[in-house]
Amino acid sequence: MQRILELPAHKLVIDVVTRWNSALEMLERFLEQQPAILAALLSPEVRRNEEDMVKALQPLKAATLVMSEEKSPTLSVVAPLHAQLLEEMSSVPHDSTVIKDLKTAVYNNLNSRYVALKDKLYVASALDPRFKALPFLSDEARDDTFSRLMTEAAGLQVEASNQESDGDGAEETVPVQQEDNSLGPVEVDDAPTPPKRSKESSALMSLLGPAYKPKATVSQKTPADKAQEEVNRYREVKPVPLSENPLTWWRVHAGEYPLLARQAKRYLCVPGTSVPSERVFSTAGDIVTAKRSCLTPQHVDQLLFLQKNLTIFKK
Q1: How far apart are CA 78 and CA 275, in angstroms?
Q2: 271 three-class SS
Q3: CA distance 83 to 136
Q4: How does pLDDT run across 198-233, given as a tens digit for each residue?
Q5: Is 53 helix (H, G, I), strand (E, B) or coil?
């Protein structure tokens, strides 16, 4: 447009806060290039590129809004969103050159993320009843994820059993006070009486013993068997709608899947982003000002707690 309108091929100037004359230079350059700017903005090609760019960036905005929520932006949301964004940023034949470059840049950037954490992210999504179908994974990767989930659940069961066995040690012995001979013998009324031995009938044992011998008890299921059984039942359950809260679902079904519920507590409590913590720092900056510099750390903590939990108490 500059060549068509015979204008100087100058770039636009941007105002800089630390340069006093930059605002004037920006306005002068804009007035100089205003015909070319208006002609470029009204160009059909530019308008189509802008519309395509807005359409291409909409999924990124939606993903940002989802992860910026404070209600349930758990770690389980990251893997489905990441896979969906990669699909949205794949170029299609009718994309223009500008849109292809945009999608390629975003795709390459997203594809390099979460490489070292993908296994943990997949397990977290598997524990979310909304995403447990894992449609963004292949059949092999999906089976590997649930196998990893079974292994971790069985390990937690073994760990819990070991802790219980360590806590159930020998009974604490109470020292018995010795008798005081000067006061005479002390009568003990609560002394435990030995149990009576049942009389054995040798004739009955010799006659019916082999037939009525107690059979060996069936061995209990191993932690791995319990974990596999829970995972198989969990996978058969239909996924819940995306509008449901996964924490509420696990609170209701924790008794049906005790091992997986323990895993869900470990994974779903992890926030997907640092947005909530950053908001806490922003709120602290609003509270601790120059006019309120005498606030003690304890009062600041209390004010932050009330500000972040006031809506919970209202409900």
Answers
A1: 14
A2: strand
A3: 6
A4: 555 567 677 676 777 766 555 577 888 889 999 999
A5: helix
Q: What is the pLDDT of residues 49-97, one digit of tens each?
A: 888 899 999 999 999 988 887 666 788 999 999 999 999 999 888 888 8
Backbone dihedral angles phi then psi of residue 155, each to the nearest 5 degrees: -65, -40
Residue 88 CA to residue 57 CA, distance in Å, equals 9
Q: What is the pLDDT of residues 267-312, one digit of tens each?
A: 998 888 888 888 888 888 888 888 888 899 999 999 998 888 877 5
10 Å CB burial of residue 14 (0-12, 13-18, 19+) is exposed
Yes or no: say if 35 and 7 are a contact pair by the CB < 8 Å rule.
yes
- Residue 286's φ and ψ, nearest 5 degrees, are -75, -30
Query: 241, 130 in Cβ contact below 8 A?
Result: yes
Joined together, the tokens standing for residue 116 give 């070292």
Domain boundaries, the chain: 1-42, 55-162+223-273, 274-315
Task: Please tell me the pTM assigned to this model.
Answer: 0.68
User: What span, in angstroms and rounded, lies between the C-alpha atoms of 186 and 178?
Assistant: 9
What is the C-alpha separation between 93 and 177, in angstroms, rounded?
93
Give the integer Cα–Cα distance in Å for 180 and 87.
87
Give the long-range contacts of residues 311-315, CB within 8 A, separation 24 or more.
Answer: none
- H/E stretch holding 144: helix 139-167
Residue 224: partners with Cβ closer than 8 Å, 6 or more residues away: 150, 151, 154
* Residues in Cβ contact with 280 at an 8 Å cutoff, skipping those fewer than 6 apart: 304, 308
Enumerate the β-bridge partners of residue 271: 74
Query: How far is it, in rounded angstroms, from Cα 259 to Cα 239?
Result: 19
